[in-house]
Structures are given as structure tokens and as C-alpha cells.
Specification:
The protein has 233 residues and is an alpha/beta fold. The protein has one domain: 3-Layer(aba) Sandwich (Rossmann fold). The protein contains nine helices and seven strands, in the order αααβαβαβαβαβαββα. It has helices spanning 3-9, 18-35, 46-58, 81-87, 100-113, 125-128, 148-155, 175-185, 225-230; strands at residues 69-73, 92-97, 118-122, 137-143, 159-169, 187-199, 202-213. Strands 3-2-1-4-5-7-6 form a seven-stranded mixed sheet, with helices on both faces. Helix 5 (100-113) links the parallel strand 2 (92-97) and strand 3 (118-122).
């Protein structure tokens, strides 16, 4: 299956044009090549990368129509930050991770593909959340990073009022447990957007949970990670 066929099967081909398709294909091949030296993904085939990284990441793009800045917390090998930068070239994407070797790939891929709208930031989210980054992003996202109440505390402090945090999850099972965190951290409305991702003939449940930021996050948050993990909001 080609990348375009994978996007078509998931109703996401409207996001593509010839240039974006070419860059996504090149990104997937860069990932697999780089992965032979540095372990970034367990995926081994292009078809798996098209579905489980590219289309999965592309689910976020339709929610970003009003955003000009995006922070990807715990970006890993650059997903969803790199596909988002390709699919939404008008958005300035900041890829944050505490592991330098992962960010080295993000930087390499961005340079190779000519993605001038990607910057990287090395460090822990709870330690970097100071001015000018604090409450400065239109959108913040995190994919496969931590439990939802923990993610709320790590991510919502970066979102400006009127912006949103988009947690990329498999389902809504953690939503109820995150409601108090959302309230405390300034999210006035929470919406779960369900998706079904078709992967190699199988249906995989996905959910983008949108936390709309309506008020400032109290200055005491985020706390130290050891505290967040042991005593989540």
C-alpha cells in the first residue's frame, strides 16, 4: 500500500498535495534509515510507518486551522510534529523532548526536507515552562507520553488563553480521571473527538481529547515531575 492509498483509506487524502505527499514519503524513509543506527521506532516497514505514524499524526491537522504556533511535548522521533509541519506549513512547530538523540533526528529530517517551520527544544516540560514559553502557544499536543492527568499538568501551562491542548490517545478511558486537572489548570471545556484508524486491514480506535484554555494556569504549576507522578491532580 502506498502512502496516498493509506491516506485515502482513512479519508485523509484531502490533506495532501504532490509536494506534501513527497515530503511525507521522504520522511518515512529517513526514519527507517536513521532507525538502523538509533532506535526511534519499532516499526520496520514503510506501510506501517504510513499508517501508524503518518496518518495517525495527520488526525491532528484538521483541529489546527486557527493556530499559528504548536508545541509538541515529548515529541520522540518527531510525531506528530514533523508530519504537522509538512501538512500545515503555516504553523510554526516546536518539537520538545528531553532526549537529545531523538531531537537530532528531528533536526536532521527538518533540514533534509527543507522544513523551515520546525524548531527543537531539549529539556523536560516541567522545567522549561517559564516565560517566554509559558502560555505562549496556540496549540500544544502530546502523543503516547504519559497518563492524561499528568499530561494536563505538563502541557496546559504552555497554552495561551483561547488556545487548546490536544492529547492524542487511543480512547476516552482516562478522560474522567483528568477532569479535576483540567479545571485546576485552566481548561474550561473538554471535548473528545473519536476516530477509527484503518491499519493493515484492522480498525484501531483513536481519540483526540481537546482541552480549551479559558483562564490562566496558576503559577505553582507544573510541579516537579516526581510530585506530578505520585500526586497527579
Amino acid at each position: 500500500m502506498t502512502l496516498r492509498q493509506c491516506f485515502e483509506e482513512n479519508g485523509a487524502d484531502r490533506l495532501l498535495d504532490a509536494e506534501k505527499e513527497e515530503k511525507l514519503i521522504a520522511l518515512g524513509r529517513l526514519l527507517l534509515e536513521y532507525n538502523e543506527k538509533v532506535n526511534l521506532t519499532s516499526l520496520k516497514t514503510e506501510e506501517d510507518v504510513w499508517g501508524r505514524h503518518m496518518v495517525d499524526s495527520a488526525l491532528l491537522a484538521p483541529y489546527l486551522s486557527g493556530a499559528s504556533t504548536l508545541l509538541d511535548v515529548g515529541c520522540g522521533g518527531g510525531f506528530p510534529s514533523l508530519p504537522t509541519a509538512i501538512l500545515c506549513p503555516g504553523i510554526s512547530v516546536t518539537a520538545m523532548d528531553s532526549t537529545g538523540k531523538k531531537l537530532a533526528f528531528v533536526e536532521h529530517a527538518a533540514k533534509t526536507l527543507g522544513l523551515s517551520n520546525v524548531t527543537t527544544l531539549c529539556g523536560r516540560a516541567e522545567e522549561l515552562c517559564k516565560k517566554p514559553l509559558r502560555e505562549s502557544f496556540d496549540a500544544v499536543t502530546a502523543r503516547a507520553v504519559a497518563a492524561l492527568p499528568v499530561l494536563c499538568e505538563l502541557c496546559l501551562p504552555y497554552v495561551r488563553q483561547g488556545g487548546a491542548f490536544y492529547a492524542m490517545k487511543t480512547d476516552v478511558s482516562e478522560l474522567a480521571a483528568s477532569q479535576r486537572a483540567a479545571d485546576v489548570l485552566g481548561a474550561g471545556a473538554v471535548t473528545a473527538h473519536g476516530h477509527v484508524l484503518k491499519l493493515s486491514g484492522e480498525d484501531a480506535e483513536r481519540c483526540i481529547i481537546e482541552f480549551k484554555k479559558t483562564k490562566r494556569t496558576p503559577d505553582i504549576y507544573p510541579r516537579r515531575y516526581a510530585v506530578i507522578k505520585v500526586k497527579p491532580l
